[in-house]
Design the sequence.
């Protein structure tokens, strides 16, 4: 991840209309430029538990907070799947193929100026995560994750919406 990575700027139909430097993220809302894309993935085991990591303290967004098993921006010119596979390799040291991932939902922008694709990777194995990204993790049910969020635990801002969605799936 690079602070000034180039991201595709998209319209309300998720069609590319330009590009934006990641460092100019704040302009999305203030200048009403459009939206950007993100990918998120949970590792889900056979018990239905999600592998939920804790972000490192140096992260700008949600330091020491709860996170997706993988999350990141879709770089300019990438598909959602290409981005997911790249981020999984960077953050979790896993080399996966598209058939390893299950698309769970595509979230449209609401409070966040993102189109977000959420994936599951079904596995019972705890990954050897990148210590630059995470400091630990636990296997939690969506309900347990929501309890953590309700207790005021720091987390990525979209994690609540996603967790509510997963609870309603069950």
Sequence:
């Amino acid at each position: 991840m690079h602070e000034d990575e180039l991201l595709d700027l998209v319209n309300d139909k998720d069609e590319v209309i330009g590009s934006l430097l990641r460092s100019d993220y704040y302009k999305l809302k203030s200048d009403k430029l459009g939206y950007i894309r993100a990918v998120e993935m949970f590792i889900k085991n056979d018990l239905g538990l999600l592998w939920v990591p804790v972000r490192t303290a140096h992260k700008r967004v949600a330091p020491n907070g709860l996170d997706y098993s993988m999350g990141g921006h879709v770089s300019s010119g990438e598909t959602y799947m290409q981005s997911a596979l790249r981020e999984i390799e960077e953050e979790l040291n896993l080399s996966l193929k598209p058939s390893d991932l299950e698309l769970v939902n595509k979230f449209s922008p609401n409070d966040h100026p993102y189109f977000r694709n959420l994936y599951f990777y079904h596995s019972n194995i705890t990954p050897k995560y990148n210590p630059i990204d995470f400091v630990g993790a636990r296997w939690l049910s969506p309900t347990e994750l929501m309890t953590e969020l309700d207790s005021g635990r720091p987390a990525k801002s979209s994690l609540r919406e996603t967790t509510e969605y997963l609870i309603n799936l069950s």
Notes: The first helix runs from residue 27 to 30. The mean pLDDT is 94. DSSP finds four helices and eight strands in the chain.
